[in-house]
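User:
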Amino acid sequence: MNNSVTPLKAMEIMRELSRQNIPFTMKFLSLNETDKVSKGIVEEKNVILMQGYRRNQSKKADVLASFMRMGSEENRQFYWPLLCELNGRKIKP
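Assistant: Predicted structure:
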């Protein structure tokens, strides 16, 4: 059985989990466009999505997603099209 989902479907799942305040684990390919570097695949555990940038705040608002690390309450961002895995489910391009 193929249990993979698209990045868009994964975002819907993450939004619903976040609305219910249920943390999740995700893996994504890191990308720092400013410095043109990647740290490869990054795993973030125990996170929920946060309100991201509005279109009038960032040119990248359509591809950036914001999340908070539960516990430290540190806010971070990632490019959601580069999502690789959600709670162990593979993301298909």
